[in-house]
Structures are given as structure tokens and as C-alpha cells.
């Protein structure tokens, strides 16, 4: 996945660069325990064009969950109108 690094200072946002990361994926059938979960922190390079702009220390995970029917229908309704992320969290 691609991450955009943005710094906000005194109400203004400034784009720093982008980082590439691969999340640890957990299926719903797997137990959430060591050694794979929670994922370890890793350093990711932040780049702006061909220039190195810094580093990001983070851990990313992608968890499979079973959606309830009402949440699934909300997702299907909203995904055609707007971004599904915005829709699920508004």
C-alpha cells in the first residue's frame, strides 16, 4: 500500500512524501497471537520523487472480519456514491 506523509503545523498541511508498505494479513480463521500478531514495528523510507524525505516507524495490519448484514448493505449502498472508506466511517 502507498502512504502519503503529511505534516500539519499551525493549521497548514504540507506534503512530505510517500512510503510503500506491505501490511501483515490476518484471516478471520487465524488466532491473533504471537509471533505474527501484533505485527512488529518497521522503518519505511519516505520519498518525494526520487529524493529521500525521511523515515516512518510503523506497523500495518489487514484484518479479515465478518460484516453484519446491515453494515454490508450500508457498504454496498455507499460504495457507488463515494469512497467506501469515507462511507463506512461517517
Description:
The chain is α+β, with helices and mostly antiparallel strands. The protein has one domain. It is 18% helix and 42% strand. The longest helix has 11 residues. The radius of gyration is 17 Å and the shape is elongated.
Mean pLDDT: 77
* Cα Rg: 17 Å
| Class from secondary-structure proportions | alpha+beta
SSE ordering: EEEEEEHH
The total count of strands amounts to 6
User: Level of helix content?
Assistant: 10-25%
**Main sheet strand line-up:** 1-2
Largest beta sheet, briefly?
2 strands, antiparallel
Shape: elongated
Outline the secondary-structure elements.
Elements: E1 2-9, E2 12-20, E3 24-26, E4 42-48, E5 51-58, E6 61-63, H1 69-79, H2 84-88
Parallel strand pairs: 3-6
Antiparallel strand pairs: 1-2, 4-5
Q: Notable features of this structure?
A:
90 residues; single chain; alpha+beta; elongated; 2 helices; two-stranded parallel ribbon; two-stranded antiparallel sheet; disordered C terminus
Question: Could you give a short description of this structure?
Answer:
With 90 residues, this protein is of the alpha+beta class.
